[in-house]
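Issue 218. Parser rejects a valid record. Input:
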Amino acid sequence: MVNSTDFPFFILSAYVDLGRLKYFCFTAVLLLYIVIVAANVFLIVLICIKRSLHEPMYVFLCSLLVNELYGSAGLFPFLLQQILSDTHIVSTSACFLQIYCLYTYAQIEFCNLAAMSYDRYLAICCPLHYNTRMTANKVALYIMVVWLYSLSKFLISLVLSVHLLLCGNVMNTLYCNNYYVVRLACSDTTVNNVYGIFTTILSVVVPLVLILFSYIRILRICLVGSRETRQKAVSTCSPHLASLINFSFGCCFQIFHSRFDVSSVPGSLRIFLSLYFLMCQPLFNPVMYGFRMSKIRAISFEMLNKSEIVFVLQGLNETQANQQIYFVFTLLLYLFTLFVNLMLIFTVFMEKMLHEPMYIFLCNLCVNGIYGGSSFYPKLLHNLLADNHLISYTGCIAQIFTVYSYVFCEFTNLTVMAYDRYVAICKPLQYHSIMTPQTVGKLLALTWSFSMLETAVGIILTSQLPICGIRIHKVFCTNWAVVKLSCADTTLNNIYGFVLMLSHVLQTVLIVVSYVHIVKASLRSKAGRRKFMQTCVPHLITLISFTVSLAFDAMYSRYGSSTSLRSLQNFLAVEFLVFPPLINPIIYGMNLQSIRTRVLKMFNNKISSMH
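Output the parser choked on:
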């Protein structure tokens, strides 16, 4: 018998070997996490910047959404790491940290829903006293009590579990669970069980009783009240009820799954339901509240729709005479870009020898290249055949989001690749212990989530601006072009732009520092110089190509003359969207011997099979 802290790690035995499907599962889970983060951040920022939403109901909702981000952060990075890993182990300290995050997330969720039900009770049953009882200070106090109470109360359970004497370290689950740790104990767990029942009553039963009391009173008022009262109750209480039922269902199954035999339930369904309250609730809440609450829905549509505004893209005005030729050339360029990127992705995916960090990051670079190209080419092809080069406000905002997230993701991915090369060349003996599948998964998740997040904030700030013009002197929408059309103060947008610029300058500094160390290490031996030429030169060419293309566009957008040749303007504007996605797979395919050999082998096998 040993204390739980004496075990260096726990083994999670619920994971199965997915083979090549693990990359598909990783991508699906990563996309879900990005959507969850984007949806919750969007509503949080919306509530913060819109003064009309500075009401108790929306402040409680903001607290709920912050908790969704907290709970998601406790599960998704860990899950992404485990999907890519061949050995599903977790250190003891990380396991208990995850237990703390997930259990406090659940407790905060129930308590926050209880506070929201009390708010609805006051608003519907005591409307004349609502503003005096639900003041800003009281709302802040309730939210502080909910978080501090939930975060502190579970510490006792955690301490009790940490000091248990365990007889094993294998848990049949996908993530760390306090009950599974208690089941591994071979010492007396009476105190844990008693305190577990006590905390369940405080965390679940008491909030549910308060919610039940509130809704009984609300129902009474609705039955005898006016039609307007019933409509108010339905519009504001139905999202809350749906959220409560959804979360309670997920928690109930998790309790049944951990305490009773559910082997008769199909394995895939069992896995889905065990993750339901952690994966679906963070997505369900922003979607449900965003669609069902009329005030949020109206403001969201006002920000993102603005369907009455249609922009005119004037960058293609000089292509009318030869638009068919431009169309064919652009289409061939787009198809070739898709082909070379998909070819490299397919090669890395099919060849097991290429399942290494460097090639996975390269694969991510190609995926981003397809994403960036697809944000630009389809609309350009449509405009080349159209008489009027128009784009709706919604379409413009969507294009800005995809183009800028492509740019941020490209630069962040190149920074990560520079770090990977630094570890490979400067610390070769430690490379595989540092760049583990878990680390690669975290870096990929960070690359995409960080890029989407910083783009989403910029989009929200831009969508707040009133538009006083419709003419954009480019072939596609850019954030700067839309900001220049505003007739309101754009100081906040400019400050955020400088913050983004600073963050990516810091990434540039990291890349420079990495290459200073790489060059120093490479000069020490002939093998180091050869490795530098094979793996770092393609990365440097890609980085320089993308940075120069981006610099041309940024400088010309702000300081270029509108009287210059339109063809030159268009070339400088689209260079960063056309050339990097096209030349990246070609440069890496030609310079990296492993990829070049595999591609030639695949083509030779294809030709041989035809004969």
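Fixed in the parser; the record now loads. The two ends are 67 Å apart (CA to CA).
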